[in-house]
Design the sequence.
């Protein structure tokens, strides 16, 4: 897809990978809705950055786990831009709970992780689908994780939610095609605030471990992941129903 003059929604667009994706889309001439749930100041700042690239951009609050919020966000995007061509389901959450601490994973945390990471992408995709299918078709890209491929990550619930999301990519692509392509990126360790907060004092040691496992010799940045997301959108129209790891080859570490 040529994204010049097109319109996108990026969920979780105020920080991290979402913010980097918004900035890259805007630099390529794509109008953007910068979705946020709590980070209003960050989302407004990202939208302002995008506008400096010469596109329209607006911050929009929506909890992706709430159906009405998803529907309202899509309608607001179409009302603002007159179209919707791309949905990046990037919003995510987790709890850092050791996998062997089964009692430590509360039902409330499990439900919230599943609601944001798995139900949210479905709700947003369902709301967006009629608009994405119009005007020659569109794209959906999910931000998944290697946690859904390898079963390693911040918590059992997080791994399960991303595994479910990977399956949703395939099943949704079947029903969305041929007008809409559906793919995902699956990052590994991402250098940034999210993991810094989650890992605390262990952050640098864990980062070094993952960098040593990566065949590229380093962990990913938000910009690396954003480039993969935009690359799926602007690349071959024959790529759909796929989950593309963005982890420097760490999955193949021996």
Sequence:
């Amino acid at each position: 897809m040529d994204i010049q003059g097109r319109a996108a929604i990026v969920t979780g667009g105020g920080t991290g990978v979402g913010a980097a994706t918004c900035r890259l889309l805007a630099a390529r001439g794509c109008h953007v809705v910068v979705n946020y749930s709590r980070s209003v100041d960050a989302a407004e700042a990202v939208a302002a950055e995008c506008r400096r690239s010469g596109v329209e951009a607006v911050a929009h609050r929506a909890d992706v786990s709430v159906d009405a919020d998803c529907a309202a966000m899509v309608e607001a995007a179409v009302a603002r831009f007159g179209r919707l061509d791309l949905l990046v389901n990037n919003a995510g959450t987790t709890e850092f709970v050791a996998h062997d601490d089964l009692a430590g994973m509360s039902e409330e945390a499990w439900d919230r992780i599943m609601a944001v990471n798995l139900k949210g992408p479905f709700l947003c995709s369902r709301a967006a689908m009629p608009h994405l299918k119009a005007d020659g078709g569109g794209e959906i890209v999910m931000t998944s994780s290697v946690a859904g491929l390898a079963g390693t990550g911040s918590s059992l619930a997080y791994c399960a939610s991303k595994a479910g999301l990977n399956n949703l990519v395939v099943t949704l692509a079947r029903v969305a095609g041929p007008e809409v392509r559906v793919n995902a990126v699956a990052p590994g360790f991402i250098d940034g605030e999210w993991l810094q907060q989650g890992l605390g004092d262990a952050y640098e040691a864990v980062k070094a471990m993952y960098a040593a496992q990566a065949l590229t010799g380093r962990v990913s940045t938000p910009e690396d992941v954003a480039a993969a997301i935009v690359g799926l959108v602007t690349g071959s129209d024959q790529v759909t129903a796929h989950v593309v790891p963005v982890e420097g080859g760490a999955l193949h570490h021996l």
Notes: The mean pLDDT is 96. The chain has one domain: 7-249. The chain has nine helices and seven strands.
